[in-house]
Every structure is written in C-alpha cells, then in structure tokens.
Amino acid sequence: MTNTMTRREWLLSDAPQTRRQARLGAFYQGWLTFRTNKLAMLGLIILILLLGMAAFAPLLAPHSPFAQDLAIRLQPPSAEHWLGTDALGRDILSRLIHGSRITLFIVGTVALIAPLIGLFIGTVAGFAGGWVDQVLMRITDIFLAFPKLILALAFVAALGPSIGNAVLALALTAWPPYARLARAETLTIRHADFIAAARLQGAGRARLLFRHIWPLCVSSLIVRVALDMAGIILSAAGLGFLGLGAQPPMPEWGAMISDGRAYILDFWWVAAMPGLAIFTVSMAFNLLGDGLRDVLDPKGGAK
Amino acid sequence: MTPPMLAIRDLNVWFGEPPDRVDAVKSADISVAQGESFGLVGESGSGKSTILRAVAGLIDSWSGDLQVAGLKVRGARRDRQFFKTVQMVFQDPYASLHPRHSVDAVLSETLHLQGIGNVDQRINKLLDDVGLGRSFRFRYPHQLSGGQRQRVAIARALAAEPRLLLLDEPTSALDVSVQAEILNLLSDLRAEHDLTYLMVTHDLAVVGHMCDRIAVMQHGRLVEELPVADLRRGAAKAEYTRGLIEASGSLGATA
Asked: What's residue B186's pLDDT?
C-alpha cells in the first residue's frame, strides 16, 4: 500500500487517536465534499489566483500603476499594453493588478468586521431574550430600514471620503442581516438539551454563548458571508465609482470604471476591463459560497 | 437520621401567564432515600419530566419546597455544590450532545467546569466505566450510534461523581436491544458508585427492572406511590395504575 493511501486512511479513520487527528479528519472530510463541486473549485482557483496576484503585484505588473504618459493615452489593447491604457496613459493591466490589493483589503476587512458585529449582537439578543433582545433587534431594524448604499454614502459623507472610512461604512451597513441570522439560529438551539446539559455542569452564560452557541452559528454565517462578498465588492466599487471610496490616483476598480465612463462609447476598454475584473471576482466568491454551503450548512443535508 | 437524598414537598410547576397558564405539576410530594432507585411513571404530558427539570433548575416557574441532600434550593439558580451532587441524563441522546463537540471536548469541558484535574486519565476512566473503549474518545456525535451517544451522556453525568442522578426516559429513544444494554449499565453503575436514581419513564417493564419504589402520575398529580413488589403482585390500589399495568401487560404480551 502506498504512503498517500495510508495517510488518507489516517485522515478518514473512524477512531482518531488524538485531538489533532480528529480535527484534521473533519477538515479533510469537508474538503472531499467541497472538491466534488466543480464550480466551487473554479471559484476557489480564481480567488487563489487573485490572492497571488495581490501578493506579487509589484513583480507581476509590467508597468507602474501611476506612471502617466499622455502621448499614449487611451490606447487599445496591444502587445505593449495588454489591456490598453487609460485617459492619462497609465497601463490598465498594471492598475488592475495593483487594484486587487485594495479590493481584497476592503472585502477582507468588511467580511471580518460585519459578521463579527452581527454574530455578537444576534447571539446575545437571542440568548438573553427579554428587553435586551427587544433593544438590540430594534436597533438592527433601524439599520435595516435604510438602503445599504445610501446609508454607507451618508457615513462616508460624514466621515470624509477615504478607503478606511469606506470600509467602516460598509461594515456598519452590512452587519444587520448577520445579526438576524445569528439570532434565529440562537433561538433554535438555546433550549436544546445539550445547552441544558452544559448548564447542569455549571457553565456560565459567557461560556454557553461563546463555546456552545457560536460554533453552531458560525458555519451558516460563513456561508452567508461568502455569498455576500460579491455584494460587498460591488458596494465598495459603487462607493469608488461615486468618488467616496478610494481617492485618485489609487487604482481602485470602481474608481477606474468611473474614470472610463466619459469615454465608454469610443474607448470601451477603459471601463470594461475593471468591470470584467469585478465581475470575475464577484462570481468566484458566489461559486465559492455555494460550495461552502454544501460543506458547512448543517441543514444542507450533507451528513 | 440522614436526610433523604431528595425531598419534594408541595411542588407546583406552571408555564405561561394567567390567561394561558398551564399547571404542569400540582402539589407533588416525593421523597427519595439515599441509595434508592425511584421511578416516576405516567403517560406523556403527565408532568413527570417537568418535575426532573424543576429539580435540575431548568425551569424557574415553580413553588414549593425542594431539598437535595438536606439543602434547600430556590428558583432556577443552582450553585457549584448542587452540580456536584445532582446530574441529569436526558431523554434524547441525539439532542443532548453538542453536534460540533467531540467526546473528548464534552468530557474535558465537564471536568474543567467541575474543577477536576488529571483530565486525560479521568476521561479514559469514564469511558471505560460506561463501556466505551478509548478509541471513542476523539469521535464526534455523528460518528456514534444512539446507544453510544447515550453512554457518552451518562459518562458526562458521572464525571463530577454525583450522588443523585436524574434520568429522563434514558432509553425511550433507543432500540429495544440497546435499551437493555443501557439499563444494565445504569444498574451496574448504581451498585458501583452508590448512586441514587430518580427515573422518569412510561415503560413499566423498565421500572420493574430498575426501581425499588414508584410513583404514578396523571394530569400533573401523583395518583399513587407503591413499592415495585406491589406492582408485580398487581396490588395497585388506584384505578389508573391498574389500567396502566393492564395496558403495558397486553403490550408486553404482543411484543
């Protein structure tokens, strides 16, 4: 028997010998489920490429993203400039490559902050019940009553346009759905016998919340976040497009579309290339989210 | 004279507020002596599980007098000492184990919460005690059968070395063949650890096997209290108890 075969058996063992083996085994099982979903794998590959692109941006970019050369402005795609040049003669490909860093930064930070706020507020509301629940959920309702982008616009307008403030505004507008979701999950498990059993061992409220309730809410939140990533990218691009996100000359994809808007009929590539990038990454996140749901969602039927 | 392990006097338990208030238990009196195995019998909804939950502190809407090992308890708050004295095994082993916690995680958290050191050794000992090998230690609930899960739940209840075990229909969610295994295990554990049992069930055969004395409940009231020997001789006084014996007897004959 080959070495890889035994490693596979070790991972899939029904009777793991150590904590580490049990954890790795559970992880491997999830990976096997995920791998059967071809589209999700495509999404994952695109996102890994995006990560690599962001990590090695200075090495990959053929030109500086900021170097202007008005003599070659608005050139169509060519051997020298693969995706053409924009109104200031900057290489669009290089700007896209460097822009991936900004996109990942925004998406990553928002996807980290918003679900955490939502998870905390939702589980506390669901678990505590009573007036705590009422107050927290009414606050959530207030946030939900505004259209997301309008609320984000208001925040950025108040705080001043910059990337940091765009992230903050997006996070502040994105958490309410997660709070709703986390509260609903909490309500279904807070009277479960295993919570009662933990209470009978003397577990305090904080332990019940963080050790027993959070792990059961996190997986459905992760799925939801992966599916919302596309929306976050689009909102970030929207803010950039409106001039309230990244400021020139930063190569943010939304701002790049905005720059190309004036020439969209005669020089379509200026706006189309960053648009294509946003489209690809959004789609990759959606595919990934779909695959993750198969793996993580306890209600998905995958046993 | 040593106080009874569990003394319940004039216990009332209700759910909801006045217009929709449901009285689940009405002035129940039960006394379980140290080392005794006491059965609570009755049909579904007769309030037997509710008594257990009120004792365990999982319900706060009750009145009356509850004493565990001579100490009074109030409301739904219980202290450390209580959790060290009283533990509970739940009815459905599919619902009483956290789906994302391995056997090891369940038991080590319990030991940690109960302030017991030497976790590694204790977990192996507990698993041996309930007849699960050490190979089960790092499994997750979904990798266990119903009977194995219930054994884990029993190990969890035993972790703190309690003196009183509340058993809420511990076998009703299991296959018949597995039921016998779990019941034998519980009998052995009681002898080994000198435990007191308060067991809820609707199965008179289980009661005959496990208990010394039983109380019969109907519509939230205790109808009758009698030794199991009387139950076997068919010497039940109350009409309802006789009906119950008859019903389960005919069931036993067809099975």
From this structure: 92
Contact residues on chain A for B58, CB-CB shorter than 8 A: 196, 199-200
Q: CB of B102 within 8 Å of any CB in chain A? A: yes
Exposure of A244 by Cβ count < 10 A (0-12 exposed, 13-18 middle, 19+ buried)? Answer: buried
Whether the Cβ atoms of residue B99 and residue B83 lie closer than 8 Å to each other: no
- Mutation target to probe the A interface, by most A beta carbons within 10 A, among B79, B90, B91, B100 is B100
- Residue numbers of A between 183 and 202 with CB closer than 8 Å to B: 192-194, 196-202
Residue that is written with structure tokens 């070790």 in the block: A10
Q: Look at residue B1 and tell me if it is in a domain.
A: no
Q: Which two tokens stand for residue A140?
A: 């959530």
Average pLDDT of chain B is 86
Q: Are B3 and B70 in contact, with CB atoms under 8 Å apart?
A: yes
Number of compact structural domains in chain B: 1
CATH number at residue B223: 3.40.50.300
Q: What is the value of ipTM here, to two decimals?
A: 0.87
* Length in residues, chain A: 303
Domain region containing B190 = 6-254
Rounded Cα–Cα distance for residues B221 and B214 (Å): 14
Per-residue buried b or exposed e for B74-93, using 16+ beta carbons within 10 Å of the residue's own CB: eeeebeeebbbbbbbbbbbb
Averaged over A288-300, what is the pLDDT?
Answer: 75
* Model pLDDT for residues A191-240, shown as the tens digit of each residue: 899 999 999 988 888 999 999 999 889 888 988 898 888 888 888 888 88
Question: Scanning every residue of chain A, which has its alpha carbon at the shortest distance from the alpha carbon of B53?
Answer: A196
Chain A CA closest to residue B89: A197
Q: Which residues contact A236 (CB under 8 A, 6 or more apart)?
A: A103, A106, A107, A110, A166, A170, A245, A252, A254
**For chain B, how many residues are written?**
255
Q: What is the model's pLDDT at position A298?
A: 53
Using the structure block, give the residue that is written with the tokens 């209600």.
A299
| Alpha carbons within 13 A on the beta-carbon side of A3 | 0
pLDDT for the residue A177: 93
Q: How far apart are CA A92 and CA A90, in angstroms?
A: 6
In a domain, B12, yes or no: yes
Distance from CA of A38 to the nearest CA of B (A): 27
Residue range A100-290, CATH number: 1.10.3720.10
Parse chain A into domains and list their residue ranges: 100-290
CA-nearest residue to B159 within chain A is: A201
Report chain A's mean pLDDT, rounded to a whole number. 88
Examine the pLDDT at B251 and tell me if it is beyond 60: no
Q: What is the pLDDT of residue B90?
A: 93
Is B210:B165 a contact under the CB 8 Å cutoff? no
In 3D space, the residue among B237, B199, B149, B194 whose CA is nearest the CA of residue B48 turns out to be B199
